[in-house]
Amino acid sequence: MIRQVICLADDDKRLSERVALKDEKAFEEIVRLYGGLIKSIVKYHLKNMPMWQEDCINEILMNIWCNMKRFDPEKSSLKNWIGACSKYRCIDFKRRYCRELLKGELDENIEDVQARTELLKQETEEEINSLLAGLDSKDREIFIKRYLLDKTIDEISVTEGRSPSYVYNRLSRGRKKLRRLFGRKGWGQNEK
Question: What is the CATH topology of the domain spanning 134-192?
Fold first, then answer.
């Protein structure tokens, strides 16, 4: 069993290195191995937005192609990394969709817009709350201000009455804690 895990980690590392060097055959292998995972994550998270699913999958694949050098086989498996990239891209799509609805860029009935916006907000809040459930309330608040409300570190430090280095440290520790929690629970391993 341990030998199998080591082989998988070595395979992940070799495959990711080839994709980072823009090897198209290696990228095709990633699509073959993990395309189903990506598609199922997108269909699950964007189930109410079927017209956006294909665009989201394309952005995920482009993100993997452009950012494979960021994958660290010491921190997680390639499958978990791709799963996390997919989930976060879906959340980005929901936020973008909500913004467009609020700006009125989509030409739809106002009642439909309000109903969909509320549903998407609720779904996104539930997902974010489940992601951040492992953090204490203060760290959750800082995460929300930084990553959802797009506040700068300086803005957060002023509202919190703390130094910017305190905010950086809280964010860094929170990210490490989330990585440990996802790694321990084996997040993404049951999705196919």
Answer: Arc Repressor Mutant, subunit A (1.10.10)
